[in-house]
Amino acid sequence: VRALPDARRTAVVCAEGIVLAALLVAVAARDDHDLSAYEFTLPLEGPQVLPPGGGWVLHRDDGRLVDVKAIAPR
């Protein structure tokens, strides 16, 4: 995820919910970003499953994670 070609462009990463959650946790840990402040439950933390089409928008500044917005499927 960090090696996406151009930080000024939008990139979409699609995968199973558990894989996306693991990626989010890894990126947050690497950037010392606290995910506990957000009002979403990661599939890694309990029985809740990320529904198809759900995910997160990761906002970066200078290559570091600064904010996460949950998106719901339509």
What keyword list fits this structure?
2 strands, alpha+beta, 74 residues, two-stranded antiparallel ribbon
Q: Label the overall shape.
A: globular
Radius of gyration: 12 Å
Pairing-aware structural class of the strands and helices? alpha+beta
Beta-strand portion reads 15-25%
Average residue pLDDT: 79
Give an account of the 3D structure.
- This protein has 74 residues and is an alpha+beta fold.
- Helix content is 19%, strand content 20%.
- It has one helix spanning 17-30, and strands at residues 55-61, 64-71.
- Strands 1-2 form a two-stranded antiparallel ribbon.
- The model has no long low-confidence stretch (mean pLDDT 79).
Please specify the SSE layout and strand pairing.
Elements: H1 17-30, E1 55-61, E2 64-71
In a few lines, what is going on in this structure?
With 74 residues, this protein is an alpha+beta fold. It is built from one helix and two strands; from the N terminus they run H-E-E.
